[in-house]
Write a structure and sequence with these properties.
The complex is a heterodimer of chains A (241) and B (276).
Chain A (H helix, E strand, L loop, with lengths): L4 H16 L10 H22 L1 H7 L1 H14 L10 H12 L1 H6 L3 H16 L13 E4 L3 E6 L19 E7 L6 E6 L1 H12 L2 E2 H8 L5 H17 L3 E3 L1
Antiparallel strand pairs in A: 1-5, 1-6, 2-3, 3-4
Helix pairs in contact in A: 1-2, 2-4, 3-4, 5-7
Chain B lengths: L1 E4 L5 H6 L7 E3 L9 H13 L2 E4 L13 H13 L4 E5 L2 E4 L2 E7 L5 H18 L4 E3 L13 H12 L2 E5 H10 L4 H4 L8 E7 L2 E4 L2 E3 L8 H14 L5 E4 L7 H27 L1
Parallel strand pairs in B: 1-2, 1-12, 2-3, 3-4, 4-7, 7-8, 8-9, 9-12
Antiparallel strand pairs in B: 5-6, 10-11
The chains are: A mainly alpha (241), B alpha/beta (276).
């Protein structure tokens, strides 16, 4: 059995007040004190979203940032029971609804996606690398996300990015198993191809070079791989048994 | 047995400090499906301390009922981490299936009693264990039809659940709503108290205290704790909550020591009274 319509309505009115700040009279309520609920509820949402998107917040400035957080919270039904995951819903909301902001900041969707993925990869459940007997195989760190973006939000300060920077950029974000820190790597298309193949299964050097040779000649492929491999092993993007 | 809320904020200090709680408490919402650095540190802490779990988003007061999928995730978390106790708040934090991430007061009405009791029973069925439900602090009643004490007692009885007695919350509510906490506490079914919370609060106006968990516990709340322990007269686990404005961990240890001393003395005194 659910609450009676009257009790349900009072709870809904109160919850809506906390979300929007618009108060509809409820019997027995201390109107002075319930302002604290609105303040506490909103501040909690505001702080969580602000710490998830520090670069976007700085870009917007305080006033615009507060307005968009309010717009999100007052209009959306937050589905996640976990507050650390809630900012993902904010990102999805902005990308789907805030057309003016997306027009003003052409790289906004990319920036939000990048900032969110840093959190998602930092927090994601642990995934172990399953090493096989062949010691020549390369393995990808399974705690990884690869994204394609239209603007170099990982290479330039947000305020300096313009329409002219538009292109095809690829980034991997992975979690260093030792430190837990998230590290990102700017990727060319051939290396995206390599990493996507490594996600499917571990590969020996020859197979990796074959993938690269779809794009460049053998010598260039070898040089590029040896350079990439050195860094990727150190920062735990790749593993070798 | 006095424990402390384990927070990501003091992960590093925690493992290296002289802090010596009897157990730790976490919110499952902060740990479900979480890996990486924090999980590694959490696992280390779990090797040393028993785990009490205190939820935030269960929302037993939700008019639309509980989120069964979420409760199943909680069950998995409790089982995986061998949780000693699971408690939640007598409040709602989700309405029309939208989370608000705060503990909103449920209207003190008989039909809310029925709804909340049904929700708690359903949770207990899924979890296959009783939960302890916490009396929350509140800053305004919402359309009340019955008294707060009747509301709580009816739910504890109808849901057949345990009680988490947050002594600071009762103090805060007594101050905010002009009643004597020492008259309120004896009216609860104290045989159901499975767990006690203690915390500091912030007075934001001459007539309003907010339950911030951001200050040290004040003497009148220690006094109410002693009063409560003498009434309960059993060794109930006690948790020190500190969520904001975290001091040196040594200060938290001093607070835990004081709570343990008060509890031991209260139980000793009672034993002495029986013997003499």
């Amino acid at each position: 059995m659910q609450s009676s319509p009257k009790t349900f309505q009072y709870q809904t009115d109160f919850a809506n007040y906390c979300k929007t700040g618009d108060y509809i009279s409820i019997p027995g309520v201390n109107e002075k004190n319930i302002k604290h609920y609105r303040r506490l509820v909103f501040n909690n949402i505001y702080d969580s979203i602000s710490s998830a998107y520090p670069i976007t917040k700085k870009l917007f400035g305080k006033k615009r940032w507060k307005k968009v957080v309010h717009q999100f919270f007052s209009s959306q039904k937050i589905k996640s029971a976990q507050i650390w995951y809630m900012p993902k819903e904010f990102k999805d909301y902005v990308i789907s609804n805030e057309k003016d902001l997306l027009n003003k900041y052409v790289f906004l969707a990319d920036l939000l996606q990048f900032e969110w993925l840093e959190i998602e990869v930092f927090m994601m459940p642990d995934e172990a690398v399953e090493f096989l007997t062949d010691s020549n195989l390369y393995y990808i760190n399974p705690e990884i996300r690869i994204i394609g973006v239209k603007y170099p939000i990982h290479l330039k300060k947000a305020k300096n990015i313009t329409k002219h920077d538009q292109g095809d950029y690829f980034i991997s974000l992975h979690r260093n198993k030792e430190t837990g820190a998230v590290e990102f790597t700017n990727l060319s298309i051939p290396f995206v191809d390599v990493l996507e193949n490594l996600i499917e299964k571990p590969l020996v050097e020859k197979s990796i070079l074959n993938i690269l040779q779809k794009y460049v000649d053998e010598t260039t492929a070898k040089n590029a791989f040896y350079q990439f491999e050195q860094i990727a092993i150190i920062n735990q993007l790749l593993y070798k048994k | 047995m006095v424990g402390i809320g384990y927070r990501k904020d003091f992960t590093e200090e925690f493992s290296e400090s002289t802090l010596n709680p009897a157990f730790i408490e976490v919110a499952p919402e902060n740990w479900i499906n979480v890996g990486g650095y924090y999980k590694k540190m959490f696992d280390k802490v779990l090797e040393k301390y028993p785990l009490f779990v205190h939820g935030l988003s269960l929302s037993v007061g939700s008019p639309e009922g509980i989120d069964v999928a979420f409760v199943k995730q909680v069950k998995q978390f409790l089982d995986q981490n061998k949780a000693v106790e699971y408690s939640e708040h007598l409040s709602f934090s989700k309405c029309e299936n939208a989370h608000l991430f705060d503990l909103l007061p449920i209207p003190f009405t008989e039909d809310a009693v029925k709804n909340v009791s049904k929700n708690i029973r359903q949770v207990q069925d899924i979890l296959e264990r009783k939960i302890a439900i916490e009396i929350v602090s509140y800053y305004s009643p919402i359309a009340p039809e019955i008294s707060e004490i009747d509301f709580i007692n009816h739910i504890v009885s109808e849901a057949d659940c345990n009680l988490l007695l947050d002594v600071n919350n009762v103090y805060v509510n007594g101050f905010n709503h002009h009643y004597n906490p020492k008259e309120f506490i004896p009216q609860l079914d104290l045989s159901k108290v499975k767990y006690i919370h203690m915390a500091g609060h912030t007075k934001v106006a001459s007539d309003l205290i907010i339950d911030t968990h951001g200050e040290n516990i004040i003497d009148p709340v220690y006094d109410l704790f002693q009063f409560t322990m003498e009434l309960i007269n059993r060794d109930v686990p006690v948790l020190l909550e500190r969520d904001f404005n975290i001091p040196e961990l040594q200060v938290l240890q001093q607070e835990m020591n004081r709570l343990q001393t008060i509890k031991s003395n209260a139980l000793k005194q009672h034993k002495h009274a029986i013997i003499t």
